[in-house]
TrEMBL record, chain B:
Superkingdom of this protein's organism: Bacteria
Membrane-spanning intervals of the chain: 6-28, 40-58, 64-95
InterPro entries reported for this sequence: Brnchd-chn_aa_trnsp_AzlD (IPR008407)
Protein name: Branched-chain amino acid transport protein (AzlD)
Classification via Pfam families: AzlD (PF05437)
Keywords, sorted A to Z: Membrane, Transmembrane, Transmembrane helix
């Protein structure tokens, strides 16, 4: 038996109970996910994509913003380079999300970690890091939330592709487009540790806005996240005696 | 677009997207774990969230500010996320009802 003199951080787990907690945590954002999924199904049919191809895209890519962006590029011949660049640029933020989950993957076998990452998305990630602050150590939280969103997203795509009739204006009328922002904002409140976060968060916000104004679309999360993280790190290094 | 090309596009999107999802945890594995790294990753989580919220709020216009402002206030007072989100959306919906969809 190893001596327990060195206290090690507890390893992460991946359990069904964790999946269940994660699924419950994202219930509030399922309505907008559903509505945007329906809207995607309709829009996909609108540019001539067959319903089953749209459904397949939702299953395999599971990336709302990128899927909408690709609709603009759905032409013959296929504009491969813009298509791949757009998909990467819109999804590049996942790299930062994944990196920040390092502690929650500690000690788990690679297949579980890389399996769970297939369902990584902004919403279940935000729910998980908020829960981590409250002591959550189960990567299943990500999987459960992601799986529920995946099922919602795919079935909504199918419904939109088959039925149709809804427009993005309807979504705006009921303010559903703001549910995701409100969800992220309330998560932020739970994540705040105190004054120590002021500077990094200010830098992140300004950098993200700057990126919206001065950079091509979709880089703001990456730029803001990195800038804020670095700001906090550099400030702490300078304060160190 | 031919069916073959459509399927190739879907496949390419899936591969690129999964690469970004798996890339973060893969790349951070090459960084030695130190107090400094942990510190950076902790700041990173909050900063990413701020970078998601701020531009989306600004893009939302007045309703964006109403929804986010009310949601944050309610979250601080009620200490519960779900009712806070509901109140934020309700406030934005009322705003839209009176001011019209911007």
């Amino acid at each position: 038996m190893a001596p327990a003199s060195q206290p090690r951080p507890p390893g992460a787990t991946l359990t069904a109970a964790g999946c269940w907690r994660g699924a419950r945590a994202i219930l509030a954002v399922l309505p907008p996910v559903f509505v945007f999924g329906v809207a995607f199904g309709i829009a996909a049919r609108g540019v001539g994509i067959e319903g089953w191809v749209a459904a397949l895209m939702s299953m395999a890519a599971f990336a709302g913003a990128a899927q909408f962006a690709v609709l603009d590029l759905w032409t013959s011949p296929v504009p491969w380079l813009p298509l791949l660049v757009a998909t990467f640029a819109i999804n590049a933020r996942h790299i930062l999300l994944g990196a920040s989950l390092r502690g929650l993957c500690r000690g788990l076998p690679a297949w579980k970690v890389y399996g769970a990452m297939a369902l990584l998305s902004d919403l279940n990630w935000a729910a998980l890091i908020a829960a981590e602050r409250r002591g959550e150590r189960d990567l299943g939280y990500l999987v459960g939330g992601g799986a529920l969103m995946w099922v919602t997203w795919v079935s909504a795509t199918v419904i939109g592709a088959v039925a149709g009739g809804l427009t993005l204006d309807d979504v705006k009328t009921y303010a559903l487009d703001l549910v995701l922002v409100a969800f992220f904002a309330t998560t932020l409140v739970g994540l705040r540790r105190g004054r120590v976060d002021d500077l990094p968060w200010l830098v992140a916000g300004l950098a993200a806005l700057g990126a919206v104004w001065f950079l091509p679309p979709n880089w703001h999360v990456m730029v803001g996240g990195l800038a804020g993280g670095l700001a906090g790190l550099i400030r702490d290094e300078l304060k160190r005696p | 677009m031919s069916t073959t090309n459509a399927l190739l596009v879907v496949l390419a999107m899936a591969l690129v997207t999964y690469a970004t999802r798996a890339g973060g945890i893969f790349l951070v594995g090459f960084v030695p774990m130190s107090a400094r790294t942990e510190n950076f990753l902790r700041y990173l989580a909050g900063a990413v969230l701020v970078a998601l919220v701020v531009p989306a709020t600004v893009r939302g216009g007045p309703e964006g500010y109403v929804a986010v402002g009310v949601a944050i206030l309610a979250r601080l007072v009620l200490r519960k996320a779900l009712p806070a989100i509901a109140l934020g959306i309700l406030a934005a919906a009322l705003w839209r009802g009176y001011m019209g969809v911007s």
